[in-house]
Known about the structure:
single chain; alpha/beta; Rossmann fold; 4-stranded parallel β-sheet; 8 helices; about 15% strand; elongated
Amino acid sequence: xxxxxxxxxxxxxxxxxxxxxxxxxxxxxxxxxxxxxxxxxxxxxxxxxxxxxxxxxxxxxxxxxxxxxxxxxxxxxxxxxxxxxxxxxxxxxxxxxxxxxxxxxxxxxxxxxxxxxxxxxxxxxxxxxxxxxxxxxxxxxxxxxxxxxxxxxxxxxxxxxxxxxxxxxxxxxxxxxxxxxxxxxxxxxxxxxxxxxxxxxxxxxxxxxxxxxxxxxxxxxxxxxxxxxxxxxxxxxxxxxxxxxxxxxxxxxxxxxxxxxxxxxxxxxxxxxxxxxxx
Length: 279
């Protein structure tokens, strides 16, 4: 049942590609149905620059202005549900700073941020790894040996890369009787030794002798299509070049945020946030 004193936001980082906002809206709509209360789709940055015509005529929401509008109309509880895999800097640095600014204007408003999709403080949860495994199985050619490369964007935060590596370990267990092997990789990383924890890079991983036997399935650790994971994006370009160079069949899976089971994980995050808000 809807609580008029509460506003729930499903929040991603934001993208200049309309497909990312459209996917966020789709997931928020399904979460609204599952939860029984409106969940607003909003981005931290960027998406407000997308032309409304590319979004069905409805401008994209950015969290801070949208949350301020809700506070101005009398909402006293704002629940932020991150559409993020792990504790990125956007969640650990940018979001708290902006929410503090909101609370300075509206001192009676309480903001609660749910854990990201992978909650490192909680007991082992295989649901995200099972989504990845489903996506891999849907991408293989029956009877043909295959290797799996779990690829994410790459992050300046080692905690985010640790989430990816944890998922790679879980995925290798789930696919132990099916895949030749599972390895993690980053699409890109920042320069300097301080960011070597992102390695191997995808281009290097695809050259690995460990992948010499069988097809390669690229398990896409991305939530929405955009500049990197979208059609004609960076991942597609890297894979096309590697496939031509190496003569290997490389098949990307669908994105995690396009799997129907992502909603159940997000629903549990709403539960956690409301429990935290209740004290």
